[in-house]
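hiii so my PI (J.) wants the whole complex modelled not just the main chain, which honestly fair. so below is everything: two entries, each one labled with what it is. i double checked the lines twice but i was tired so who knows lol
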Amino acid sequence: QQQVKQSPQSLIVQKGGISIINCAYENTAFDYFPWYQQFPGKGPALLIAIRPDVSEKKEGRFTISFNKSAKQFSLHIMDSQPGDSATYFCAASMEYGNKLVFGAGTILRVKS
Amino acid sequence: DAGVIQSPRHEVTEMGQEVTLRCKPISGHNSLFWYRQTMMRGLELLIYFNNNVPIDDSGMPEDRFSAKMPNASFSTLKIQPSEPRDSAVYFCASSLRPERSTEAFFGQGTRLTVV
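here's the output for the full assembly
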């Protein structure tokens, strides 16, 4: 059973554009929602994370929007750059479990 | 800190052989996770340890897979006998619990090919 659904599978954005990746979850016990970035040949690395007590979190060009009632969250990458080209994973976990459940991933390509 | 260290980075083995993957977590971290990444199934949690004790191994696919953590600085994932469908990238990750932050730091992975 897929607990975190991620879309789109792939995304092509022009340099300077906005990249948007969406995720939806089912388990209302989740209370930690991170996004991981993975470059080829590397392990995933934490990009930004949010807890459900806030609706938005921004770090530089990266913003997470969180809609608790809809059980959805999204990643927005503003002013996308070629260096942002990577695979992005949303994930979810319960506070004391720390078992990350990952979405299927989105391959982002930013064209220069 | 050097981060989570995994070895080997690449492993090619013949079907039926035993394979052992190794992981050294970040010093001071007390939770360790083994994930498997494939194109078909994405990133799957296989097993995780807290304070060297296996907490949840429900993701371990079969009895052919086993994991140990004899001390806080070392863990192994063993596959015996290996099969072609075990070909994947295996990641080890560690984190510090029970801190508020649940960030998991991943190693660079071991790419396993079973022929």
